[in-house]
């Protein structure tokens, strides 16, 4: 095996580990929140998940720009992974150690701090993949496979662990992140050797390129759907069809497994045929399939449609990330992908908040309609912009995003 392929697999393993650690908590979030002092309703679960992603939004670009500025990524990933593991261990202590029981607001603060660290490990592992040779679509496809498989395993194992003990996913998440820190140290740091500039300069350069708004907008909507399923999807299947956390985790896996396995081939396909069809057509099909899950009349049909959601999601995701690396010069790639993860994290946050509020106030079906039509709408609005960006040479920025 050549060194590039080995490094790609190792970094994909790191991305996979971060996603496993996150998603382990999702199927049993209502049970876990109760053990940590919250209520069992969807609002408390929404706050618990949203706290972490609020930190993702704030710190994603900071980690990326910092790595570009100092010319190193590996040790920053190690710090982020170990910091995230520590946050899970602190939550365990709060729930189990006599005298450390805290208000739910303190639990949310711990989630914020943990998210600030974990996003560094996640975002910079993807950036190190983008630093490799071999095609942006292929490298982002590897990241996508890792994300999907990590989410799939995390949802299944997390659901099973919750039935044993609601705190068990926290122990597992901490162990996985410690393993990520160890794995990443085996990968050479290939941060591009360019003139180093300050974080502020890099971020200003990115904001001066409006073309980045296009993949960032798609990233926002795509991750919003993932956040929606992570929270509302779990409650939907548990409340509507009366399944337990283990079954709900298995249903999430029906989405995440095809989403994972098809990322690499679809990413490679976008290298050959361009980004336009996977991004625009894929987004429309993705949105329609999401709505179909919400209108399904039986558990079997709804669960089966989750597979279709995963297929179309896999068509969109790697091509969208590849648009970012197509536009960004090598010296600013970390900040560019960090910016993508900011909007992605905002999308996750929106999926939790918008989906959770709509489902809580109006019902599950309207929440599926809102999220599904948002995916269709972004594809229609951005048709011309995606076509224009798709015609550019890598590293060249389009004059406008509309």
What features would you describe in this structure?
- With 402 residues, this protein is mostly helical.
- It is 81% helix and 0% strand.
- The longest helix has 29 residues, at 42-70.
- The chain is globular, with a radius of gyration of 20 Å.
Percent in helix: over 70%
- Uncertain segments: 195-199, 398-402
DSSP summary: helix tally: 16
Outline, from the CA principal axes?
A: globular
Distance between the termini: 43 Å
**Arithmetic mean pLDDT:** 85
The quaternary structure here is single chain
Instruction: Characterize the biggest β-sheet.
Output: none
Report the β-strand fraction as a percent range. under 5%
Structural class: mainly alpha
What is Rg? Answer: 20 Å
Number of strands: 0
Q: Please provide the ordered H/E string of secondary-structure elements.
A: HHHHHHHHHHHHHHHH
Structure summarized in a few sentences:
The chain is built from 16 helices and no strands. The protein has helices spanning 3-23, 29-35, 42-70, 74-96, 104-131, 136-164, 168-184, 199-207, 213-241, 245-261, 263-273, 276-295, 299-327, 333-361, 364-381, 383-390.
């Amino acid at each position: 095996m050549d060194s590039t392929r080995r490094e790609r697999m190792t970094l994909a393993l790191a991305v996979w580990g971060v996603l496993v650690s996150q998603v382990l908590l999702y199927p049993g979030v209502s049970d876990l929140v109760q053990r940590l002092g919250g209520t069992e309703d969807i609002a408390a679960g929404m706050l618990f998940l949203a706290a972490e992603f609020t930190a993702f939004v704030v710190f994603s670009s900071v980690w990326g720009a910092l790595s570009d500025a100092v010319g190193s990524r590996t040790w920053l990933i190690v710090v982020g992974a170990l910091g995230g593991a520590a946050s899970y261990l602190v939550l365990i202590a709060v729930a189990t150690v006599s005298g450390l029981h805290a208000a739910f607001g303190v639990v949310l603060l711990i989630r914020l701090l943990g998210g600030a660290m974990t996003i560094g490990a996640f975002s910079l592992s993807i950036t190190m993949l983008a630093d490799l040779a071999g095609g942006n679509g292929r490298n982002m496809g590897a990241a996508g496979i890792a994300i999907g498989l990590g989410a799939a395993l995390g949802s299944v194992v997390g659901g099973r662990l919750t039935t044993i003990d609601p705190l068990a996913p926290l122990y597992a998440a901490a162990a996985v992140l410690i393993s990520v820190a160890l794995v990443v140290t085996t990968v050479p740091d290939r941060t591009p050797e360019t003139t180093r500039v300050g974080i502020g300069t890099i971020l200003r350069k990115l904001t001066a390129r409006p073309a980045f708004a296009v993949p960032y907008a798609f990233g926002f909507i795509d991750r919003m759907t993932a956040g929606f399923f992570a929270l509302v999807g779990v409650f939907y299947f548990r409340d509507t069809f009366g399944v337990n956390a283990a079954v709900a985790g298995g249903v999430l896996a029906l989405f995440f497994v095809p989403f994972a396995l098809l990322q690499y081939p679809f990413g490679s396909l976008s290298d050959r045929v361009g980004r336009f069809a996977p991004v625009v057509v894929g987004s429309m099909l993705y949105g329609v399939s999401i709505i179909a899950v919400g209108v399904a009349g039986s558990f079997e049909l709804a669960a089966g449609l989750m597979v279709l959601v995963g297929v179309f999601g896999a068509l969109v995701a790697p091509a969208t990330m590849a648009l970012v690396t197509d536009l960004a010069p090598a010296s600013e790639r970390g900040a560019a992908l960090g910016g993508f993860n900011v909007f992605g994290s905002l999308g996750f946050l929106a999926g939790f908040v918008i989906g959770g509020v709509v489902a809580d106030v109006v019902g599950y079906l309207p929440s599926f309609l809102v999220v599904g039509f948002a995916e269709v709408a972004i594809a229609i609005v951005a048709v011309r912009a995606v076509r224009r960006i798709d015609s550019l040479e890598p590293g060249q920025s389009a004059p406008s995003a509309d």
